[in-house]
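Notes from hallway chat w/ T.B., transcribed later so I don't forget. T.B. wanted the structure written out for a chain they're using in a teaching module, and asked if we could keep both sequence and structure tokens in one place. Agreed to drop them here.
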Amino acid sequence: MKRFKIAIYFGLPIFLILAISIMIQASWINSFDSFYQGLIKSIAGLRGIMIGISFLASPKMDLLWMVILAVILWLKRMRPMASSLVITLISADIVGFIVKHLVQRARPIGHMPSDDGFSFPSGHTLGMGILVIWLIMVLLPKVMENRTTRIWVDVLLIIWLILVMCSRVYLLAHYPSDVCGSLAFALMWVGVVELCLQRLVKKIWNINI
């Protein structure tokens, strides 16, 4: 329970600061975006790789990974876990869609035609962030007893998520503040949903998920 509260304490304020700063067009956001956008774009010749990474983390692919993982958990009779994953990702996508239309931030100039709609938050980063953070915070502590192995798996998952974030900035689909805001939202949302589900399930069925 404690780790989910910590996730909310860190994720919520960072998300709100970024969202509000973007809406009021705070000057520090422009400096932040320009610096990290230039840093990421300074590495040439990665467009093909970044397109591949971006595809694997697209919202449709996120749903596919979710279904595959949920089916595996369901077949292994870890049905509360499967339900937790589905509820967390679907609800995050819905709220993320609402936030996009509240903030209405235009995408960076030069983005690919396939990247339509508003820019904040990043759907790719949000979906993959939910999956990665849920795995690290919810599933792996339950199924992976070896602490050293789990740490290595956590590191690999975090590296993958960072690559996804970088790919969206590299392809000019989002600003750095978009992907950072999405990560903060994903962290917060996993904490919120998991706390709510644990309390609900424990109250009704007296079991832990």
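Follow-up for T.B.: Helices lie at 2-23, 27-41, 47-56, 59-75, 79-103, 123-143, 147-170, 176-204. Might be a good example for the class.
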